[in-house]
Design the sequence.
C-alpha cells in the first residue's frame, strides 16, 4: 500500500485520519498533498468537458464543411447540367424549326 505517501494525521487539526481518506473527517482539510490526483479531478473533468465540446464543435464544423462541399459540388453539377441543357434545348428547337422549315 502507498500509505507512506499520505499523512497519518491531519495537517489541519492534527487528528489521526485513515490512510484512504481524501479529506479530514474532523476539519475537512485535504489529506493528499503529495498526490495531485484529487486536485486534478476538477481540471480533468473540465478538460474532458472542453474536449468533448471541442469534439462536437469539430464534428459540427466537419459536417458543415462536408455539407457545403457537397452542396457546392451539386450546385456546380446542376450548373453544368443546366449549361449543357440550355444549348441542347436551343439546338433541339433549332433542329425542330429546321425540320419544320424543311418539311414546309
Ligand atoms: Zn483535520
Sequence:
Amino acid at each position: 500500500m502507498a500509505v507512506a505517501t499520505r499523512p497519518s494525521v491531519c495537517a489541519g487539526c492534527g487528528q489521526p485520519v485513515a490512510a484512504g481518506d481524501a479529506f479530514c473527517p474532523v476539519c475537512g482539510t485535504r489529506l493528499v498533498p503529495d498526490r495531485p490526483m484529487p486536485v486534478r479531478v476538477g481540471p480533468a473533468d473540465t478538460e474532458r468537458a472542453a474536449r468533448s465540446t471541442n469534439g462536437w464543435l469539430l464534428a459540427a464544423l466537419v459536417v458543415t464543411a462536408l455539407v457545403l462541399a457537397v452542396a457546392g459540388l451539386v450546385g456546380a453539377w446542376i450548373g453544368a447540367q443546366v449549361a449543357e441543357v440550355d444549348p441542347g434545348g436551343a439546338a433541339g428547337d433549332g433542329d425542330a424549326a429546321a425540320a419544320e422549315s424543311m418539311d414546309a
